[in-house]
Amino acid sequence: PGILGQISNKKFPESFQFGAATAAYQIEGAWDEDGKGESMWDRFIHEDPDRVKDRQNADIACDSYHKWREDIELLKELGVTLYRFSVSWPRILPNGTPNKINQAGIDHYKTFIKALKEAGIEPIVTLYHWDLPQHLLELGGWLNEQIADYFGEYARIAFKNFGDDVKIWATINEPKSTCLIGYGAGDSPPGLKLVADGVYQCAKVQLLAHAKAYHIYDDEFRAQQGGRISLVLDTTYNEPASDSDADKFGAELETEFNLGWYANPVYIGDWPELMKTRIANRSRQEGYSFSRLPEFTAEQLKYVNGTFDYFGLNMYTGLTAQYTGEFDIGEPNYYLDKGTSTSHGADWTPSTVSWLYSYPVGMRKLLNLVWNKYNPGTIYVTENGWASDGSLNDQGRIDYLQAYLSNLLDAILEDGVNVAGYTTWSLMDNFEWTEGYTQKFGIIHVDFDSPNRTRTFKESGRWYQKVVATRCLIDSCDE
Ligand code: PNW
User: Fold this and answer.
1) From atom 13 of ligand 1, which residue's Cα is the shortest distance away?
2) Do 321 and 341 touch, CB atoms closer than 8 A?
């Protein structure tokens, strides 16, 4: 099925797990309660509320720190068997270092995880979904390789305390987004505009941090706990804007500079060749005696390569790409290194956020690409979802989810891709970073005007509930 194609009339395999996803900073609130430390997002927004579109903040958000029992009831009502959420680093280690452990934070997550398991819901726990402890930011944040060691310390504490109950770990969520937005565009913390070199250094440090956590799990916990661990990467599926060889190259560049940048070191062994040669060439012409893309030492390469037990994939949308040719040498910049310009297909349905268009067949194509290129053994689609204005009548989200899930199912049944589970973004409306509460991704509505943060199923929530129960995307599937 293409964009306007047929929805599959087959059933999802019994082993396939449906779920929903959230992240600590976007739902928890309680930003300074019970000993929690300050995260870089707390500071970034408190310091200047104008950094958020509606001048709101996440001090309370969905209040899930207090209302977690209700969240579990919602998950039960949906009937899902997977819940992907993140643990807040500064809630466990207020200044990010193991020097001070906040027992109240540990107890909170322990209780929550136990209750989830009792409800028959398996946790996928993300260790880092963007809320770096402020202290570690001041130490240099993701530009300082030492942060990788601190991440390892934090991961060890999480494995030790939660690992008996958590069997699927995700180290870092979307390193690409953190590096490009926080260290390149400067629109999220730390607000740095280091698009020439900071973005590359950030990527290296995040990969080292991921690998550190992986090895600690492997060496110290895997034998007893028997779980799986990987990282979560986000990417678009990129189509050439035309049939020309130049545009085909443009799509390849787009994919290598976004997905390959992080996936190649972990799944294959080093930065993509295309990135290495292009950035080295441009660097040389720009007066550097070395490449602005930092090299891994031989030891680091070995350390990072193979640090996965599955592929965590966040997939929302597609792009059309063109190769722009070589220009602006002398102005070091990731985007010029990449050498593409991107847009979207003329017939792709827009959402309420500028970057998100519906391109369902991209899901099937991307799953095949990841499966064939990276040989991950298992893929979890850890995020996929639609932005809308927040009304309960959200047919647009149903159309999107139905078409994407249909393509996901085709990838499983027709193409033989092992997709083990899917956690839709998001369980409920939440704090959408610098978009504040203006963008709603939830299949469940949250009333941010009520102190109760009342949760109400949207039509998409009811629709998803039915899909989960019947394993079928239409009224009745082939038996
Ligand atoms: C995700 N893309 O980021 C984040 O993980 C969530 O925290 C966030 O709420 C959600 O998107 C919705 O914005 C994305 O390239 C990063 O298509 C990149 C893309 C999509 C989502």
Assistant:
1) 432
2) yes
Structure tokens at 278: 């292009």
ipTM score: 0.89
Q: Assess contact for 227 and 167: CB atoms under 8 A.
A: yes
Q: How far apart are CA 239 and CA 236, in angstroms?
A: 9
* Residue closest to 237 by CA, chosen among 177, 156, 303, 313: 313
Q: Which of 21, 15, 12 is nearest to 424 (CA)?
A: 21
Pocket of ligand 1 (CB under 6 A): 23, 173-174, 177, 234, 236, 314, 316-317, 355, 383, 425, 432, 441
Q: Is 174 tagged catalytic? A: yes
User: In percent, how much of the chain has pLDDT > 70?
Assistant: 99
Task: Give the atom of ligand 1 at the shortest distance from the alpha carbon of 177.
Answer: 16
Query: Could you read off the pLDDT of 35-88 as tens digits, one per residue?
Result: 999 999 999 999 999 999 999 999 999 999 999 999 999 999 999 999 999 999
21 close to 426: Cβ distance less than 8 angstroms: yes
Predicted TM-score (pTM) of this structure: 0.97
Is 404 a residue whose pLDDT tops 60? yes
Distant-in-sequence, close-in-space partners of 311: CB < 8 Å, separation ≥ 6: 230, 233, 263, 267, 370, 374, 376, 378, 379, 380
The answer to whether 267 and 375 have CB atoms below 8 angstroms apart is yes
Angle formed by the axes of helices 395-413 and 459-470, to 10°? Answer: 20
Q: Which two tokens stand for residue 89?
A: 């680093």
Tell me, yes or no, if 295 is annotated catalytic. Answer: no
254, 338 contact by CB (below 8 A): yes
